[in-house]
Amino acid sequence: MIKTIVSYVKEYKIYSLLCPIFVVIEITMDVLIPYLMSLIIDKGIRLGSRDDIMKYGIYLIITVVIAFLSGMISGYLATKASAGLAKNLRFAIFKNIQDFAFEDIESFSTGSLITRMTTDVQNIQASYQMANRLALRAPLLLIFAMIMSFNIHFSLSLTFMFTFPVLILGLAYIISHAHPLFVKIFKTYDDLNTMVSENLLGIRVVKSFVKEDHEIEKFHSLSKKLFRLYTKVSKLMAYAMPIMMLSTYVASLLIAYFGTGHILEGTLTTGQLVSLINYAVQIQISLMMLSFVVVQFIISRNSAERVVEVLNTKTGLDKNIDGLTEVKDGSIEFNAVCFSYLHDNSKYVLKDINFSISSGDSVGIIGPTGSSKSTLISLIPRLYDADCGVVSVGGINVKDYNLKNLRDAVSVVLQKNTLFSGSILDNLKWGDVNATLDQVQEAAKLAQAHNFIMDTENGYDTKVDRGGANFSGGQRQRLSIARSLLKNPKILILDDSTSALDNETEKKIIDGLNKFRPDLTKIIISQRINSLKNTDYILVVDKGRINKIGTHQELLDTNEIYQDIAKTQIGGDFDA
């Protein structure tokens, strides 16, 4: 795990390598300061030598300046290296998520992925910064200070060793109890982020059902849980400073008490006693720094595990980089296809699917809610892979194509269409970044979007709010269809993506596609009979199986499921 995380330091490795050099210089200067102070006291003040006071005072100033500069440089290098690591980690996580199959994305919640890319990466960044400075500074300061104190007076130096057990046991208790609390904190963060994300995405539904108070209560409940957990951790961490201060004061008092006797005996000077007290404080501080490092490492260990989990999640979909790059036409064939989200043959949501579509055909798909219509068409661009059987496009197994080229040939327009911040033109050019304005306008005209675009204040340069909030549902659907047409696909799948359009506008779109894109295979999923009755034929899907295939009139005459759907729409969406 650590090896995986550190491997992302990459181009910032030089900062990590240089940082310890300046940390060593800083620590060396720090432990020299008490020694120089003892010389000023013993050789200067006690003997009344102004020259020695001046000489060792200059040495002391130089030492302090070097320590200060080394600390600044090592801090800069540690910050640069840790910030670089965080940048690379965030990029790697985001890039890997873009490669996820749908089932990979669904194995993590949206909130969890956001937390891992933000909070968890920040924790790792803080730990790596500590690893570059404090993780080296603390043990070196401990070792150097102990060497200097033992060199001054071995037996007296042993006295403050008696405070170690109190400090170490206290910190061990804090660390052991803090770890499980941090695990719970990160889980609660995931839940909170997921809840907020779902609320914002479904804010219209929340308001439609007047569930604001319910959502506020859910948020408040999670916030209180997070508050309680953080309070517990804070209480534990609050004990650390008093424990350290107690140990420091006790050590200083012991040294002062026993040191006075040694001064009277002539085996210790006043300056040496002062330096011993300073070294005792440095030793206690180094132990305290080590405790902070350990606590931060505990936090980051949980974060690192969560980040590595995402980085190590490799999509089950083979991109087939060396696969076929050209899709000959838009013909489609399903041969004995079955599929399970759990890859469990006892829980298939699609079973024994067999049908074929010729290139240029217009095909409708209808069926009761939950009959797996959307899952069926998701197998064509390999948003999911079939568990058995073969899905073919252009007479070739979809798995034999380069995944990017296959998806370029298949455009899927969903009911819940997402528009991105930017201009209308920017959004439409997602279909083809190199498209000319004429090509963009042609696609918009086919999608019946051109007129309302031109009615906006800035036409194709009109700004799109986040999620397309400044456009109606029907306008967003037409823009999404135009965007998909710009890909110049061989297959266009409209997954209930004309639900917000009136019958006349929808008919104009379909008629335009039949006239100007005759070779384009069109698959329309809808519960509206009017949307499907003019297609070449219709697939009736029920409980994950193909119930019947036929034209509108054939199904109206012979298929019970189709008849039931039609009866609910006569005089409404369906004109008999």
Automatic annotation (TrEMBL):
Transmembrane segments: 12-36, 56-78, 134-152, 158-175, 236-259, 279-299
Record's subcellular location: Cell membrane
Domain ABC transmembrane type-1 per the UniProt entry, residue ranges: 17-297
Recorded topology in the membrane: Multi-pass membrane protein
InterPro entries, per the entry: AAA+_ATPase, ABC1_TM_dom, ABC1_TM_sf, ABC_transporter-like_ATP-bd, ABC_transporter-like_CS, P-loop_NTPase, Type_1_exporter
Enzyme Commission number: 3.6.3.-
GO cellular component, one term: plasma membrane
Record-linked Gene3D superfamilies: ABC transporter type 1, transmembrane domain, P-loop containing nucleotide triphosphate hydrolases
PANTHER family noted in UniProt: ATP-BINDING CASSETTE SUB-FAMILY B MEMBER 10, MITOCHONDRIAL, ATP-DEPENDENT PERMEASE MDL1, MITOCHONDRIAL
Listed name of the protein: Multidrug export ATP-binding/permease protein SAV1866
